[in-house]
Protein backbone atom coordinates (compact mmCIF):
# COMPACT_ATOMS: atom_id res chain seq x y z
CA UNK A 1 0.00 0.00 0.00
CA UNK A 2 1.38 3.42 -0.97
CA UNK A 3 1.83 6.06 1.70
CA UNK A 4 0.46 9.59 1.31
CA UNK A 5 3.86 11.23 0.78
CA UNK A 6 4.80 8.91 -2.09
CA UNK A 7 1.36 9.32 -3.64
CA UNK A 8 1.71 13.10 -3.62
CA UNK A 9 5.19 12.91 -5.19
CA UNK A 10 3.72 10.84 -8.03
CA UNK A 11 0.67 12.99 -8.71
CA UNK A 12 1.41 16.66 -7.96
CA UNK A 13 3.00 18.58 -10.84
CA UNK A 14 2.64 22.26 -10.02
CA UNK A 15 5.57 24.70 -9.66
CA UNK A 16 7.81 23.75 -6.75
CA UNK A 17 6.68 20.13 -6.47
CA UNK A 18 9.24 17.33 -6.78
CA UNK A 19 7.56 15.78 -9.81
CA UNK A 20 6.87 19.15 -11.43
CA UNK A 21 10.52 20.12 -11.06
CA UNK A 22 11.59 16.79 -12.56
CA UNK A 23 9.33 17.22 -15.59
CA UNK A 24 10.54 20.79 -16.14
CA UNK A 25 14.01 19.37 -16.81
CA UNK A 26 12.74 18.03 -20.16
CA UNK A 27 11.37 19.48 -23.39
CA UNK A 28 7.57 19.13 -23.28
CA UNK A 29 5.22 18.74 -26.28
CA UNK A 30 2.74 21.56 -25.74
CA UNK A 31 0.52 21.86 -28.82
CA UNK A 32 0.12 20.94 -32.45
CA UNK A 33 1.70 23.36 -34.89
CA UNK A 34 -1.62 23.59 -36.72
CA UNK A 35 -3.30 25.07 -33.63
CA UNK A 36 -1.50 28.41 -34.02
CA UNK A 37 -1.77 30.64 -37.10
CA UNK A 38 0.49 33.61 -37.88
CA UNK A 39 -1.09 36.72 -36.35
CA UNK A 40 -3.95 34.44 -35.24
CA UNK A 41 -5.80 34.33 -31.95
CA UNK A 42 -3.76 33.68 -28.79
CA UNK A 43 -4.53 30.29 -27.26
CA UNK A 44 -4.91 29.35 -23.61
CA UNK A 45 -2.48 26.59 -22.70
CA UNK A 46 -2.39 24.69 -19.39
CA UNK A 47 0.91 22.90 -18.68
CA UNK A 48 2.17 21.50 -15.38
CA UNK A 49 -0.39 23.55 -13.48
CA UNK A 50 0.63 26.83 -15.13
CA UNK A 51 -1.81 29.02 -17.04
CA UNK A 52 0.00 30.05 -20.22
CA UNK A 53 -0.70 31.76 -23.52
CA UNK A 54 0.63 30.53 -26.86
CA UNK A 55 0.68 32.56 -30.08
CA UNK A 56 2.39 32.63 -33.47
CA UNK A 57 3.69 36.02 -34.60
CA UNK A 58 3.70 37.58 -38.06
CA UNK A 59 7.01 35.91 -38.87
CA UNK A 60 5.77 32.44 -37.90
CA UNK A 61 7.64 32.24 -34.57
CA UNK A 62 5.81 30.82 -31.54
CA UNK A 63 5.76 32.40 -28.09
CA UNK A 64 4.63 30.74 -24.85
CA UNK A 65 4.07 33.09 -21.88
CA UNK A 66 2.55 33.26 -18.45
CA UNK A 67 -0.93 34.52 -19.32
CA UNK A 68 -0.59 37.55 -17.01
CA UNK A 69 0.79 40.76 -18.46
CA UNK A 70 3.73 41.87 -16.29
CA UNK A 71 2.27 45.41 -16.16
CA UNK A 72 -1.02 44.96 -14.25
CA UNK A 73 -1.59 41.19 -14.63
CA UNK A 74 -4.48 41.39 -17.09
CA UNK A 75 -4.66 38.21 -19.18
CA UNK A 76 -2.76 38.30 -22.45
CA UNK A 77 -5.37 35.91 -23.85
CA UNK A 78 -7.29 39.07 -24.75
CA UNK A 79 -4.24 40.57 -26.42
CA UNK A 80 -3.81 41.74 -30.02
CA UNK A 81 -1.45 39.51 -32.01
CA UNK A 82 0.01 41.79 -34.66
CA UNK A 83 3.27 43.06 -36.10
CA UNK A 84 5.59 40.43 -34.63
CA UNK A 85 4.30 40.71 -31.09
CA UNK A 86 1.42 40.32 -28.66
CA UNK A 87 -0.06 43.58 -27.40
CA UNK A 88 -1.97 43.62 -24.10
CA UNK A 89 -5.52 44.92 -24.61
CA UNK A 90 -5.47 46.81 -21.29
CA UNK A 91 -2.74 49.43 -21.86
CA UNK A 92 -1.13 48.37 -25.12
CA UNK A 93 2.18 47.05 -23.80
CA UNK A 94 3.64 44.78 -26.46
CA UNK A 95 5.86 41.67 -26.14
CA UNK A 96 7.84 39.68 -28.67
CA UNK A 97 7.93 35.85 -28.66
CA UNK A 98 10.89 35.86 -26.25
CA UNK A 99 8.91 37.87 -23.70
CA UNK A 100 10.75 41.16 -24.26
CA UNK A 101 8.65 44.27 -23.87
CA UNK A 102 9.04 46.20 -27.13
CA UNK A 103 6.49 49.00 -26.65
CA UNK A 104 4.92 50.97 -23.77
CA UNK A 105 2.51 53.24 -25.67
CA UNK A 106 0.76 54.63 -22.56
CA UNK A 107 4.05 55.83 -21.04
CA UNK A 108 5.83 59.00 -22.26
CA UNK A 109 8.85 57.94 -24.27
CA UNK A 110 11.32 59.66 -21.94
CA UNK A 111 9.88 57.72 -18.97
CA UNK A 112 9.52 54.30 -20.62
CA UNK A 113 11.59 51.37 -19.35
CA UNK A 114 10.64 48.61 -21.78
CA UNK A 115 14.14 47.15 -21.74
CA UNK A 116 13.65 46.25 -18.05
CA UNK A 117 10.30 44.46 -18.47
CA UNK A 118 9.81 40.88 -19.54
CA UNK A 119 6.84 38.57 -19.68
CA UNK A 120 7.61 35.20 -18.10
CA UNK A 121 8.26 33.14 -21.22
CA UNK A 122 9.54 29.69 -22.11
CA UNK A 123 11.82 28.49 -24.91
CA UNK A 124 10.09 26.91 -27.91
CA UNK A 125 10.93 24.81 -30.96
CA UNK A 126 8.88 22.95 -33.58
CA UNK A 127 9.37 19.54 -35.15
CA UNK A 128 7.06 17.14 -37.04
CA UNK A 129 3.92 19.17 -36.42
CA UNK A 130 4.58 19.56 -32.68
CA UNK A 131 5.35 22.68 -30.67
CA UNK A 132 7.74 21.92 -27.79
CA UNK A 133 8.61 24.07 -24.81
CA UNK A 134 11.30 23.99 -22.14
CA UNK A 135 10.01 25.16 -18.75
CA UNK A 136 13.12 24.45 -16.68
CA UNK A 137 15.70 26.72 -15.04
CA UNK A 138 18.70 26.09 -17.30
CA UNK A 139 20.05 29.08 -19.16
CA UNK A 140 20.95 26.75 -22.01
CA UNK A 141 18.18 24.18 -22.60
CA UNK A 142 19.09 20.50 -22.80
CA UNK A 143 19.39 18.69 -26.14
CA UNK A 144 16.21 18.17 -28.09
CA UNK A 145 14.34 14.89 -27.60
CA UNK A 146 15.26 12.04 -29.95
CA UNK A 147 12.63 9.33 -29.69
CA UNK A 148 12.42 7.27 -32.86
CA UNK A 149 9.07 8.62 -34.17
CA UNK A 150 10.06 12.22 -33.46
CA UNK A 151 13.07 11.78 -35.77
CA UNK A 152 10.93 10.57 -38.70
CA UNK A 153 10.31 12.81 -41.72
CA UNK A 154 7.04 14.73 -41.16
CA UNK A 155 5.28 13.03 -44.07
CA UNK A 156 5.85 9.61 -42.43
CA UNK A 157 4.53 10.62 -39.02
CA UNK A 158 1.06 10.34 -37.43
CA UNK A 159 0.32 12.82 -34.64
CA UNK A 160 -2.87 13.31 -32.63
CA UNK A 161 -3.93 14.72 -29.26
CA UNK A 162 -6.68 13.63 -26.85
CA UNK A 163 -7.40 15.21 -23.47
CA UNK A 164 -8.06 12.94 -20.50
CA UNK A 165 -9.81 14.19 -17.36
CA UNK A 166 -7.67 12.49 -14.74
CA UNK A 167 -4.20 12.56 -13.26
CA UNK A 168 -1.32 11.88 -15.63
CA UNK A 169 -0.08 8.81 -13.74
CA UNK A 170 -3.23 6.71 -13.91
CA UNK A 171 -3.59 7.68 -17.57
CA UNK A 172 -0.02 6.63 -18.35
CA UNK A 173 -0.24 3.39 -16.37
CA UNK A 174 -2.81 2.03 -18.80
CA UNK A 175 -0.02 1.85 -21.38
CA UNK A 176 2.28 -0.22 -19.14
CA UNK A 177 -0.44 -2.64 -17.98
CA UNK A 178 -0.43 -5.44 -20.55
CA UNK A 179 -2.88 -7.93 -19.04
CA UNK A 180 -5.92 -5.66 -19.49
CA UNK A 181 -5.65 -6.12 -23.27
CA UNK A 182 -7.09 -9.64 -23.06
CA UNK A 183 -10.14 -8.36 -21.18
CA UNK A 184 -11.04 -4.71 -21.78
CA UNK A 185 -10.13 -4.68 -25.48
CA UNK A 186 -10.60 -8.24 -26.78
CA UNK A 187 -12.28 -10.05 -23.90
CA UNK A 188 -15.41 -10.68 -25.95
CA UNK A 189 -13.71 -12.91 -28.54
CA UNK A 190 -12.04 -16.31 -28.58
CA UNK A 191 -8.77 -17.25 -30.36
CA UNK A 192 -10.51 -19.34 -33.02
CA UNK A 193 -12.46 -16.37 -34.43
CA UNK A 194 -9.66 -13.79 -34.76
CA UNK A 195 -7.22 -13.25 -37.60
CA UNK A 196 -3.79 -14.85 -37.77
CA UNK A 197 -2.08 -12.14 -35.74
CA UNK A 198 0.46 -12.59 -32.94
CA UNK A 199 -1.96 -10.86 -30.59
CA UNK A 200 -4.09 -14.00 -30.53
CA UNK A 201 -1.64 -15.45 -28.00
CA UNK A 202 -2.83 -12.77 -25.55
CA UNK A 203 -6.30 -14.30 -25.86
CA UNK A 204 -5.16 -17.92 -25.66
CA UNK A 205 -3.47 -17.08 -22.34
CA UNK A 206 -4.86 -14.00 -20.59
CA UNK A 207 -2.57 -14.28 -17.54
CA UNK A 208 1.04 -13.71 -18.68
CA UNK A 209 4.17 -13.84 -16.58
CA UNK A 210 6.62 -10.95 -16.41
CA UNK A 211 10.16 -9.69 -16.40
CA UNK A 212 10.67 -6.07 -15.31
CA UNK A 213 13.82 -3.94 -15.11
CA UNK A 214 15.03 -0.41 -14.54
CA UNK A 215 16.71 1.11 -17.61
CA UNK A 216 18.72 4.20 -18.50
CA UNK A 217 15.53 5.75 -19.89
CA UNK A 218 13.08 4.58 -17.21
CA UNK A 219 11.63 1.07 -16.90
CA UNK A 220 10.73 -1.79 -19.23
CA UNK A 221 8.75 -5.00 -19.02
CA UNK A 222 8.39 -8.18 -20.98
CA UNK A 223 5.14 -10.09 -20.62
CA UNK A 224 5.53 -13.64 -21.87
CA UNK A 225 3.38 -16.65 -22.68
CA UNK A 226 3.93 -19.98 -24.45
CA UNK A 227 3.44 -19.80 -28.21
CA UNK A 228 3.96 -22.81 -30.52
CA UNK A 229 6.15 -25.64 -29.25
CA UNK A 230 9.61 -24.38 -28.30
CA UNK A 231 8.61 -20.71 -28.69
CA UNK A 232 7.61 -17.82 -26.44
CA UNK A 233 5.29 -14.94 -27.28
CA UNK A 234 6.73 -11.66 -25.96
CA UNK A 235 5.15 -8.23 -25.43
CA UNK A 236 7.69 -5.52 -24.56
CA UNK A 237 6.80 -2.01 -23.40
CA UNK A 238 8.56 0.93 -21.77
CA UNK A 239 8.14 3.91 -19.51
CA UNK A 240 10.50 6.71 -20.54
CA UNK A 241 11.14 9.81 -18.45
CA UNK A 242 9.42 12.02 -17.83
CA UNK A 243 5.97 10.94 -19.11
CA UNK A 244 6.42 8.82 -22.25
CA UNK A 245 5.43 5.25 -23.06
CA UNK A 246 6.16 2.82 -25.88
CA UNK A 247 3.26 0.34 -25.80
CA UNK A 248 3.37 -3.32 -26.93
CA UNK A 249 0.33 -3.38 -29.23
CA UNK A 250 1.94 -3.96 -32.63
CA UNK A 251 4.60 -5.93 -34.45
CA UNK A 252 7.92 -5.12 -32.76
CA UNK A 253 10.02 -4.94 -35.92
CA UNK A 254 8.23 -1.86 -37.26
CA UNK A 255 6.40 -0.57 -34.17
CA UNK A 256 7.85 2.94 -34.14
CA UNK A 257 5.65 4.77 -31.66
CA UNK A 258 5.89 7.00 -28.60
CA UNK A 259 3.04 8.37 -26.52
CA UNK A 260 3.25 11.29 -24.10
CA UNK A 261 0.98 11.75 -21.07
CA UNK A 262 1.58 15.44 -20.41
CA UNK A 263 0.11 16.78 -17.16
CA UNK A 264 -1.97 19.88 -17.80
CA UNK A 265 -2.54 20.09 -14.06
CA UNK A 266 -3.07 17.47 -11.33
CA UNK A 267 -6.51 16.56 -12.73
CA UNK A 268 -6.14 16.81 -16.53
CA UNK A 269 -3.75 15.11 -18.96
CA UNK A 270 -3.00 15.68 -22.63
CA UNK A 271 -2.31 12.41 -24.42
CA UNK A 272 -0.05 12.86 -27.45
CA UNK A 273 0.45 10.02 -29.94
CA UNK A 274 3.37 10.06 -32.40
CA UNK A 275 3.94 7.06 -34.68
CA UNK A 276 5.26 5.83 -38.03
CA UNK A 277 2.59 5.55 -40.71
CA UNK A 278 3.99 2.18 -41.83
CA UNK A 279 3.50 0.43 -38.47
CA UNK A 280 1.89 -3.01 -38.61
CA UNK A 281 -1.24 -2.76 -36.41
CA UNK A 282 -1.96 -5.03 -33.49
CA UNK A 283 -4.88 -7.44 -33.26
CA UNK A 284 -7.98 -5.69 -34.61
CA UNK A 285 -9.83 -8.08 -36.95
CA UNK A 286 -11.82 -11.30 -37.03
CA UNK A 287 -10.99 -14.11 -39.44
CA UNK A 288 -13.62 -12.85 -41.89
CA UNK A 289 -11.89 -9.46 -42.05
CA UNK A 290 -14.46 -7.63 -39.94
CA UNK A 291 -13.39 -5.52 -37.01
CA UNK A 292 -13.32 -7.05 -33.53
CA UNK A 293 -16.34 -5.52 -31.75
CA UNK A 294 -15.23 -2.37 -30.00
CA UNK A 295 -11.71 -2.38 -31.47
CA UNK A 296 -12.03 0.84 -33.45
CA UNK A 297 -10.24 4.10 -32.74
CA UNK A 298 -13.11 5.74 -30.80
CA UNK A 299 -11.64 9.24 -30.56
CA UNK A 300 -14.10 11.64 -32.18
CA UNK A 301 -13.53 15.00 -30.53
CA UNK A 302 -15.73 17.95 -29.66
CA UNK A 303 -14.97 21.33 -31.26
CA UNK A 304 -12.15 23.05 -29.42
CA UNK A 305 -13.10 26.10 -27.38
CA UNK A 306 -11.04 28.83 -25.73
CA UNK A 307 -11.12 27.52 -22.14
CA UNK A 308 -8.12 26.27 -20.19
CA UNK A 309 -9.36 22.71 -20.78
CA UNK A 310 -11.13 23.32 -24.09
CA UNK A 311 -8.83 21.39 -26.45
CA UNK A 312 -9.09 17.86 -27.87
CA UNK A 313 -11.94 16.59 -25.67
CA UNK A 314 -13.70 13.38 -26.67
CA UNK A 315 -17.34 13.48 -27.74
CA UNK A 316 -17.94 10.21 -25.86
CA UNK A 317 -17.08 11.03 -22.27
CA UNK A 318 -18.04 10.65 -18.61
CA UNK A 319 -21.14 12.81 -19.07
CA UNK A 320 -22.68 10.31 -21.52
CA UNK A 321 -21.07 7.17 -20.00
CA UNK A 322 -18.70 6.97 -23.00
CA UNK A 323 -21.75 5.93 -25.06
CA UNK A 324 -21.62 2.43 -23.62
CA UNK A 325 -23.81 -0.08 -25.49
CA UNK A 326 -25.02 -2.61 -22.92
CA UNK A 327 -26.62 -4.82 -25.58
CA UNK A 328 -23.30 -5.03 -27.43
CA UNK A 329 -21.54 -5.74 -24.14
CA UNK A 330 -23.75 -8.79 -23.63
CA UNK A 331 -23.23 -10.14 -27.14
CA UNK A 332 -19.83 -9.20 -28.55
CA UNK A 333 -17.84 -6.46 -26.83
CA UNK A 334 -16.35 -7.06 -23.39
CA UNK A 335 -16.78 -3.40 -22.40
CA UNK A 336 -19.62 -2.25 -24.64
CA UNK A 337 -17.54 0.86 -25.37
CA UNK A 338 -16.47 1.48 -28.96
CA UNK A 339 -12.79 2.20 -29.42
CA UNK A 340 -9.60 0.99 -27.78
CA UNK A 341 -8.54 4.47 -26.76
CA UNK A 342 -12.01 5.27 -25.43
CA UNK A 343 -12.11 2.03 -23.44
CA UNK A 344 -8.84 3.00 -21.74
CA UNK A 345 -10.12 6.52 -21.17
CA UNK A 346 -13.30 5.28 -19.48
CA UNK A 347 -11.39 3.02 -17.10
CA UNK A 348 -8.76 5.56 -16.04
CA UNK A 349 -11.21 8.45 -15.68
CA UNK A 350 -13.63 6.26 -13.72
CA UNK A 351 -10.99 5.97 -10.97
CA UNK A 352 -11.55 9.65 -10.14
CA UNK A 353 -9.47 12.65 -11.12
CA UNK A 354 -6.72 11.41 -8.76
CA UNK A 355 -7.06 7.77 -7.73
CA UNK A 356 -6.74 6.98 -4.03
CA UNK A 357 -3.72 4.64 -4.16
CA UNK A 358 -4.45 3.55 -0.61
CA UNK A 359 -7.48 1.60 -1.88
CA UNK A 360 -5.48 -0.48 -4.37
CA UNK A 361 -4.53 -4.14 -4.01
CA UNK A 362 -1.77 -4.66 -6.56
CA UNK A 363 -0.97 -8.13 -7.92
CA UNK A 364 1.94 -9.67 -9.83
CA UNK A 365 0.21 -8.45 -13.00
CA UNK A 366 0.95 -4.91 -11.77
CA UNK A 367 4.68 -5.50 -11.43
CA UNK A 368 5.59 -2.90 -14.08
CA UNK A 369 3.33 -0.35 -12.44
CA UNK A 370 4.82 -0.76 -8.96
CA UNK A 371 8.38 -0.79 -10.37
CA UNK A 372 7.74 2.37 -12.39
CA UNK A 373 6.24 4.21 -9.44
CA UNK A 374 9.30 3.42 -7.32
CA UNK A 375 11.60 4.56 -10.13
CA UNK A 376 9.77 7.89 -10.49
CA UNK A 377 9.81 8.54 -6.74
CA UNK A 378 13.53 7.76 -6.46
CA UNK A 379 14.32 9.93 -9.45
CA UNK A 380 12.23 12.90 -8.29
CA UNK A 381 14.03 12.81 -4.93
CA UNK A 382 17.42 12.49 -6.62
CA UNK A 383 16.76 15.48 -8.89
CA UNK A 384 15.69 17.48 -5.82
CA UNK A 385 19.15 16.73 -4.42
CA UNK A 386 20.90 17.98 -7.56
CA UNK A 387 21.39 14.76 -9.52
CA UNK A 388 20.77 15.05 -13.27
CA UNK A 389 17.49 13.62 -14.56
CA UNK A 390 17.75 10.49 -16.76
CA UNK A 391 18.20 11.13 -20.46
CA UNK A 392 18.13 14.92 -20.25
CA UNK A 393 21.74 15.46 -21.30
CA UNK A 394 22.05 12.17 -23.18
CA UNK A 395 18.86 11.71 -25.22
CA UNK A 396 20.60 8.95 -27.20
CA UNK A 397 19.73 6.56 -24.34
CA UNK A 398 16.16 6.53 -25.67
CA UNK A 399 17.42 4.83 -28.84
CA UNK A 400 17.57 1.57 -26.87
CA UNK A 401 13.79 1.46 -26.41
CA UNK A 402 11.12 0.01 -28.66
CA UNK A 403 7.84 -1.65 -27.76
CA UNK A 404 5.92 -4.37 -29.54
CA UNK A 405 5.27 -8.09 -29.76
CA UNK A 406 7.12 -11.00 -31.34
CA UNK A 407 7.72 -14.74 -31.03
CA UNK A 408 11.20 -16.05 -30.22
CA UNK A 409 12.81 -19.40 -29.36
CA UNK A 410 12.16 -20.43 -25.77
CA UNK A 411 15.89 -21.05 -25.36
CA UNK A 412 16.61 -17.29 -25.53
CA UNK A 413 16.54 -15.25 -22.31
CA UNK A 414 14.30 -12.19 -22.27
CA UNK A 415 17.06 -9.63 -22.78
CA UNK A 416 18.68 -11.76 -25.47
CA UNK A 417 15.34 -12.10 -27.26
CA UNK A 418 14.88 -8.30 -27.05
CA UNK A 419 18.36 -7.60 -28.40
CA UNK A 420 17.94 -10.07 -31.26
CA UNK A 421 14.63 -8.50 -32.24
CA UNK A 422 16.11 -5.00 -32.11
CA UNK A 423 18.85 -6.09 -34.49
CA UNK A 424 16.27 -7.52 -36.89
CA UNK A 425 13.99 -4.46 -36.81
CA UNK A 426 13.48 -1.81 -39.47
CA UNK A 427 15.36 1.39 -38.73
CA UNK A 428 14.09 4.26 -40.90
CA UNK A 429 15.62 6.99 -38.72
CA UNK A 430 19.00 5.30 -38.17
CA UNK A 431 18.62 5.92 -34.43
CA UNK A 432 17.82 2.33 -33.46
CA UNK A 433 21.08 1.07 -34.92
CA UNK A 434 23.03 2.97 -32.26
CA UNK A 435 21.36 0.90 -29.57
CA UNK A 436 21.41 -2.40 -31.43
CA UNK A 437 25.14 -2.48 -32.15
* Shape label: globular
Number of strands: 18
N-to-C span: 41 Å
Helix content: 10-25%
Low-confidence stretches: none
How many domains? The number is: 2
Could you report the average pLDDT, rounded to the nearest whole number? 94
What would you report as the Rg, rounded to the nearest angstrom? 23 Å
Tell me what you see in this structure.
With 437 residues, this protein is of the alpha+beta class. The protein has 2 domains: 27-141, Rieske Iron-sulfur Protein, CATH 2.102.10.10; 151-436, no CATH class. Helices cover 19% and strands 24% of the residues. The chain is built from 10 helices and 18 strands. The chain has helices spanning 4-11, 18-23, 168-173, 181-185, 201-204, 326-331, 340-350, 367-384, 414-424, 431-436, and strands at 27-32, 43-47, 50-56, 62-66, 80-81, 86-87, 94-95, 101-103, 121-127, 130-134, 157-164, 209-214, 218-226, 231-240, 244-246, 257-265, 268-276, 404-409. Strands 11, 12, 13, 14, 15, 16, 17 and 18 form an 8-stranded antiparallel beta sheet that branches. Strands 1-10-9-4-3-2 form a 6-stranded antiparallel beta sheet, with no helix packed on it. A hairpin with a 5-residue loop joins strand 3 and strand 4. It is globular and about 85 Å long. It starts with a helix and ends with a helix. The mean pLDDT is 94.
Blueprint (SSEs and pairs):
Layout (H helix, E strand, L loop, with lengths): L3 H8 L6 H6 L3 E6 L10 E5 L2 E7 L5 E5 L13 E2 L4 E2 L6 E2 L5 E3 L17 E7 L2 E5 L22 E8 L3 H6 L7 H5 L15 H4 L4 E6 L3 E9 L4 E10 L3 E3 L10 E9 L2 E9 L49 H6 L8 H11 L16 H18 L19 E6 L4 H11 L6 H6 L1
